[in-house]
Amino acid sequence: MLFLIAIAAEAMSAALVAGRREMDWLGVCVLACVTALGGGTLRDVLLGRHPLSWIEHPYYLVIVLVAALATALIAPIAKRLRTSFLVLDAIGLVVFTVIGCDIAQGLGLHWIVILVSGMVTGTFGGVLRDVLCTQIPLLFRKELYASVSLVTGALYMAAPHLGIQHGVGLVVAMVVGFVLRMLAIRYHWEMPKFVYRDDWD
After folding, report:
1. CB atoms within 10 A of CB 176
2. pLDDT in 10s for each residue of the chain, 201 residues
3. What's the CA gap between 26 and 193, in Å, rounded?
4. Are 137 and 34 spatial neighbours (Cβ–Cβ below 8 Å)?
5. Among 12, 54, 56, which residue's Cα sits nearest to residue 35?
């Protein structure tokens, strides 16, 4: 259920971006599929998991397309689209992160690989979306994004060691990650920037 919510949320966020770029309906659908399923696809390829999730469960594509097209239909009458995009993107980020960690953990992998798997799942769909829209991905900007994914994954992994039940730990990790992402946007919390302007000549 969490996965279905996440792919729908990311498909909706992608549809909003597609609308800002004045894409046609096919563009909306392609961007939604890449955004919602791209991170999980990359994770599965890296971990050697086959078949890919959306190939094994084709109805994922149906959910993504319905969510994207429904968003495209209601967007013209919706207000505060920027806020909607940020909320939907944050939901996808934290949910995909814990799903990616859970899958890698189930394979018995090293904790670093588990964290990276969660981050890849949570962030790379958005990276692909932004690249296709010719803008700098959120992952590479100064605001907190990948770091939120890492915090979410770390909390999810730490929960059992703190005696917290799996379901409770999952909810806590997602809520903390979501709140952290929203606070980072609200108060402009940033990662340190690397600035180098010396002339090499």
Report:
1. 16
2. 789 999 999 999 899 999 989 999 999 999 999 999 999 999 999 999 999 999 999 999 999 999 999 999 988 776 667 788 888 889 999 999 999 999 999 999 999 999 999 999 999 998 999 999 988 887 777 678 999 999 999 999 999 999 999 999 999 999 999 999 999 988 888 888 777 877 665
3. 37
4. no
5. 12
Q: Read off the DSSP letter of residue 88.
A: H
**Scanning the structure block, which residue is given the tokens 């939901």?**
91
Amino acid identity for residue 193 in this structure? K
How far apart, in Å, are the Cα atoms of 58 and each of 42, 53, 61, 64, 102? 17, 8, 6, 10, 21
**How far is the C-alpha of 41 from the C-alpha of 52, rounded, in Å?**
6
Q: In the chain, which ranges are continuous DSSP H helix?
A: 2-20, 25-47, 53-56, 59-74, 81-106, 111-132, 146-158, 166-187
pTM: 0.90
**Neighbouring C-beta atoms of residue 101, cutoff 10 Å:** 30
Q: At what angle do helices 146-158 and 166-187 cross, to 10 degrees?
A: 160
- Cis amide linkage into residue 160, ω under 30° from 0: no
DSSP letter, residue 163: T
